[in-house]
Amino acid sequence: AKHTRKHNNTSRMGSLFPIQNAFHLGAYQVAINEAADLDSTGTTSLSSSDAIEKDCYVYRSYIALGSYQLVLDEIPDDSPSQLQAVKELARYLADPLDRETISQKMKEMLEDPAIAQNATVQLMAATLFAKEGEMVEAMRCCATSLSLELSAFMVNLLISMDRVDAAEKTLAKMVANDDDATLTQLATAWVNVALGGSKVQDAMYVYQELGDKYTWTVKLFNGAATCAMAMGRFEDAEKELLEALQKDSKDPDTLHNLAVCALHLGKPSTRFFNQLKTLTPKPGAVEKMDELEKMFDTASEQMASA
Description:
The chain has helices at residues 17-25, 28-40, 48-64, 68-74, 81-94, 99-110, 113-116, 119-132, 135-142, 148-160, 164-178, 182-195, 199-213, 218-230, 234-247, 252-264, 270-278, 284-305. The chain is mainly alpha-helical. The radius of gyration is 20 Å and the shape is globular.
């Protein structure tokens, strides 16, 4: 059902909007290119805080593309705190053996009241803590509500913890703040999928609207596919996912969702699982699968020796 949206254009009129929007849609290379275009036209029009924010989006885009080393090489140690936080996230993802130390360093950064007031620092910390499974710490960062993106991350965390009721409350605040923002639209879709039933179709409309209005990304194709799967339309989901696969043949969400679709459609799924296993870092689904395989092997051995 269509409804009139309250338009708050102030947040979308700035020169950083194309970069931010591309990033939130999952069009990471587009975000990098938009920033390069902005640089080539001269960044004199950008305030120093906007210039730092632009760089943060660029390096976060490189992180999303898996280019951790580039981020580590390019961000100097004397850069502003928000860029340091981005660098720490890249370091965390690049070095699985040193994650506890990096997590501790991030906690120490947040102890500085001035740094703790920065939305990007809080967001990078929340992302890192969530990956560490430290949900309370991650939610504490999001609860600062310093940015719409922190609120969106909170919605994501709450849904992952089966607290859709609390996610709805956070979403209501996002809607009141800026209901037409891409992030608010995406968060609305996440909540609607979690609520299920007729709400799933509403979520599907959000993904279609964003894809048609801006650009179809792997993230949006997967969102639409998740909706189709929730409605039992696995052939439709498969079509969306094959489109996503053409854009990125190594995306873990796409491969995982294709494997699920294949199982439901009675098609071979081994190839997708095997492709998932070759990815580094290992996607969460593969780690769980490896654990189950080990448990199965152990149980088989115990039964054989009994």
